[in-house]
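pls design
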């Protein structure tokens, strides 16, 4: 493993080479980095020089209960500035997701007022 950079330096380098949506330290030797899309994750891997043939990655697709398709991508660089990295992104295709409780409240509201009486509530 290469010499470890400080957490502050590696976070700064991550921000300069990519567009993460989340950065955190998982433990004394590992970082968690999240990206909004698989394309953002791939771009960061390339910019950071981590997109090598021996990089451990994974991709899979699933259909959620709401019928939306999600494409998950993971990458696990074992040594980036002395840190292990657990990076992932989720591409979601379909309508925006509402929290379950919000969806239930809106459904009740529509059932009570009906779509033709929207201003009544």
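designed seq:
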């Amino acid at each position: 493993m290469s010499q470890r950079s400080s957490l502050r330096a590696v976070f700064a380098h991550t921000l300069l080479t990519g567009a993460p949506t989340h950065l955190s330290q998982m433990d004394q030797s590992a970082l968690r980095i999240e990206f909004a899309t698989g394309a953002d994750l791939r771009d960061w891997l390339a910019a950071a020089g981590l997109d090598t043939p021996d990089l451990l990655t994974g991709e899979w697709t699933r259909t959620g209960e709401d019928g939306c398709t999600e494409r998950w991508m993971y990458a696990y660089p074992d040594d980036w500035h002395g840190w292990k990295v657990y990076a992932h992104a989720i591409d979601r295709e379909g309508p925006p997701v509402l929290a379950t409780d919000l969806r239930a409240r809106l459904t009740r509201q529509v059932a009570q007022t009906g779509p033709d009486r929207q201003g009544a509530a």
